[in-house]
Amino acid sequence: MKKILLTGLLLSLFTVNAQVYTFNAFNEPYQDLVNSTSLNDGEVWDDPEYQIPIGFDFTINTHTFNTIYIVDWTAGGELSTNVNETGILPIMSPIGQDIVDRGDGTSVSQSNISYKTEGDVGSRILKIEWNNAGFWEDETQNDFINFQMWLYESSNIIEYRYGVSEINNPANSFEGEAGPVVTLIPSIDLDSGDLIEDAYLLEGTPANPNFVVVTPGDEYEGDFLQGAIPSGTVYSFNPGTLSSEEYNTIEFKMYPNPVDSELNILLSTQAYNVTFFNSLGQHLSLVENKKGVFDVSSLNSGIYFVEIKTNTRNIVKRFIKK
Domains, the chain, ranges and CATH? Predict the structure, then answer.
């Protein structure tokens, strides 16, 4: 199971307002881009680096920009706001596995990457498309995927859209995982590796995935989907701004940490579910002695995780059993 270690600053960084994202998955027929501008222009690509003018200002939390890059310091299907691997940046990742032009090893591209901005001023959409992209680890060289990323003017909605794919060699194409890695990281310090704000990960069934929020300082395992993403699937990340007080009501308090026998979990809302799992991602059955107090005395010493599901989001935190 792939492990992401997201260490960083505490949530006390949110002194006035905090932007959070909600998530929606739905199905809509996938349409290839027409009359779009090719970025590779017939050249075979691997670990590509392309600059894309958005055509309008776009905002992800504290980052506002009008140019975005497919960056060569990731794996081909990830984007950021700086061509250099440095500084505090957002990372948008429709697919985290290493993708490559299916014409790799030849002089003719089989996998066009293109973009277009369309719509009226105030409601324009930047659309970026990876057409017929292959997978670097796929020894058969037969697997492929089609996908797009859309950025919406004014609303700042981010969408990942998926078309037809063929994955007959998932063990290699997904690099040992059950499915693709799909994430949105609004702010991370690339120099230190510290997560600055909440990160958003998808796991579980691709057609209706779990939306997991990982806060700075947390370590989380299980950040991939269970299978290929069906054609027509759309993952929509919708930004909203909460006051510090509202944000704190969504977060929960967990103490003591490290813990010996009883772990307290406090949340302002009564509508939530608690799931515990170990470092292997296996669910644990823990007894709730009374509301919000869980008996962990039977656990061996080590690192564990608790996932809180509310009506609007999932939150994962780590705790240490003495």
Answer: 3-244 (no CATH), 252-321 (2.60.40.10)
